[in-house]
């Protein structure tokens, strides 16, 4: 089965499915790639002739879509037809943390995956390779296999795990030049054939030695492990930032010093207001849940601490703003520079900005947000989702503006929540003339030139300095 893949279907046109399939289509012009989604608006946006209206902002993405769309890359809501025609189906739907029932707040919610599996089982008339692309808890492939093998119509499915390691903001580069591609599958004859079929798609542009084949469970657990290690590095450096603030040490100097140790390496040592994004928290919580479900309490507690430290870091940042505002932000205007969870993306899932804003709203602050790529509706939706403040209060207290200069008028403080490059290039003298004095800047990303700002007249508060 599946030696020669001619038609691919990807279920889920999101941050993972969209860019990944666009690059696969670009590098495999002989394969027809159909991306399907139940969200009609998303599909309409992907098909928009104005490429600036694509639903996802990702550097380099629109160029790839421009080259492939309606040639061998198609976006549609017709899920059944795309499944039926495909030799290989990628499942790329979202797997958020459960918000109800058993495992609430920790386990991954697999209802979207299960719906997909049932749909594939119902519609398929020919044998297919089904690829898990979404981050999934270990042994999900088993559940998929269970649903798919019970159709009784003789159709055979081979399940592969092919976790995505792209980071948002650099997704296209990560896809074009990945450190590695991981393919997990059964070690049976048909399992090996399926792994080779998927490998050959990647080998169209990636050196063979970077395409690793493992068993399914190793592949699934590798993804959680990679994200847990990365999140742990950030929580580790953030833990040191707290100690630095109490001493004369500077966390960026420490990061530089330890990063030159080749055993440690320089990446992912940037202390910040806290990590966000759709993966880190979800995957670490998932790991905690899995460890607990095997009765491994010590293992669960070890990883849970990564999340606790991250929550503490977000809270600490908000508390610092309050403390330096004479212990009250009630009715004061706090300008937020950035809302996305990192630069170069319009994704806001689990962004630190949401939690810092929520804490400041508890203290009745007025918040003016400027982010170069995030929409007003998204910001309101993020705050409303927390269910801690009424929609009316959020809309009264939080305003979203389309330029940084609008945000700073009569602001009591400026808080940097995302490390967008443009923030560094602003005319800080002009900003100084518009804000209330004392002029306080809270740099939650340590990106600004502190000396320059201090010379202009600002008080600058950093993380870990
Ligand atoms: C992550 C993984 O990097 C990627 O491999 C996986 O497929 C998905 O999850 P992503 O969430 O897109 O990718 O972004 P990443 O660059 O990892 O950043 C995550 C968060 O950590 C961001 O909020 C970022 O600002 C923060 N971060 C990152 C730091 O605070 N300090 C750092 O040194 C690095
Ligand atoms: P990710 O970051 O994992 O790509 P997103 O939320 O950006 O997550 O994208 C997941 C997409 O999957 C969404 O656009 C959602 O509408 C889509 N989706 C979820 N369930 C289904 C389903 N059963 N059939 C088709 N699309 C689905």
* Named CATH architecture of the largest domain: 3-Layer(aba) Sandwich
Count of spatially separate domains: 2
Name of the CATH class of the largest domain: Alpha Beta
Globally, the shape reads: globular
* Residue-averaged pLDDT: 95
Biggest pleated sheet: 6 strands, parallel
Structural class: alpha/beta
Q: What is the fold named in CATH at topology level of the largest domain?
A: Rossmann fold
| Euclidean distance between termini CA atoms | 59 Å
- How helix-rich are the residues, as a percent range? 40-55%
Strand order of the largest sheet: 3-2-1-4-5-6
Low-confidence stretches: none
Radius of gyration computed on alpha carbons: 24 Å
Structure ligands: uridine-5'-diphosphate-xylopyranose, adenosine-5'-diphosphate
Tell me the number of helical segments per DSSP (H or I, 4 or more residues long).
19
Please sum up the structure shown.
Keywords: NAD, Oxidoreductase. The chain is α/β, with parallel strands linked by helices.
């Amino acid at each position: 089965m599946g030696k020669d893949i001619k038609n691919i279907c990807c279920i889920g046109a999101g941050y993972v499915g969209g860019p990944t399939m666009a690059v696969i289509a670009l590098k495999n012009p002989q394969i027809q790639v159909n991306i399907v989604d139940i969200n009609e608006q998303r599909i309409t946006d992907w098909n928009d002739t104005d490429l600036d209206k694509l639903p996802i902002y990702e550097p380099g993405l629109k160029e790839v879509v421009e080259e492939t769309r309606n040639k061998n890359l198609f976006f549609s809501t017709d899920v059944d037809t795309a499944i039926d025609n495909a030799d290989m189906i990628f499942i790329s739907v979202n797997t958020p943390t459960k918000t109800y029932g058993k495992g609430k707040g920790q386990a991954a919610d697999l209802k979207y995956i299960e719906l997909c599996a049932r749909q594939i089982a119902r519609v398929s008339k020919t044998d297919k390779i089904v690829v898990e692309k979404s981050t999934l808890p270990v042994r999900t492939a088993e559940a998929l296999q269970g649903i798919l093998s019970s159709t009784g119509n003789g159709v055979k499915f081979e399940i592969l795990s092919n976790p995505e390691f792209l980071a948002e903001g650099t997704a296209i580069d990560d896809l074009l030049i990945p450190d590695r591609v991981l393919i997990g599958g059964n070690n049976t004859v048909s399992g090996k054939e399926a792994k080779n079929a998927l490998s050959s798609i990647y080998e169209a542009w990636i050196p063979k030695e970077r395409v690793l084949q493992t068993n399914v469970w190793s592949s699934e657990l590798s993804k959680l492990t990679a994200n847990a290690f990365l999140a742990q590095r950030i929580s580790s450096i953030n833990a040191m930032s707290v100690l630095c603030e109490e001493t004369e040490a500077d966390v960026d100097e420490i990061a530089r010093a330890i990063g030159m140790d080749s055993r440690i390496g320089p990446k992912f040592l940037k202390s910040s207001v806290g990590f966000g994004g759709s993966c880190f928290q979800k995957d670490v919580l998932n790991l905690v849940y899995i460890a607990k479900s095997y009765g491994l309490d010590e293992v669960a507690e070890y990883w849970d601490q990564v999340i606790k430290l991250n929550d503490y870091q977000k809270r600490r940042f908000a508390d610092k703003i309050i403390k330096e505002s004479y212990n009250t932000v009630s009715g004061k205007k706090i300008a937020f520079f950035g809302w996305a969870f990192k630069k170069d993306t319009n994704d806001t899932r689990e962004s630190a900005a949401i939690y810092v804003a929520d804490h400041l709203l508890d203290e009745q602050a007025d918040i003016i947000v400027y982010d170069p790529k995030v929409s007003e509706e998204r910001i309101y939706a993020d705050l409303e989702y927390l269910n801690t403040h009424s929609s009316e209060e959020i809309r009264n207290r939080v305003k979203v503006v389309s330029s940084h200069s609008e945000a700073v008028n009569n602001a009591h403080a400026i808080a940097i929540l995302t490390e967008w490059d443009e923030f560094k290039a602003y005319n800080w003298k002009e900003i100084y003339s518009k804000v209330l004095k004392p002029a306080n800047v809270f740099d939650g990303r340590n990106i600004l030139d502190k000396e320059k700002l201090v010379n202009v007249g600002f008080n600058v508060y950093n993380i870990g300095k």
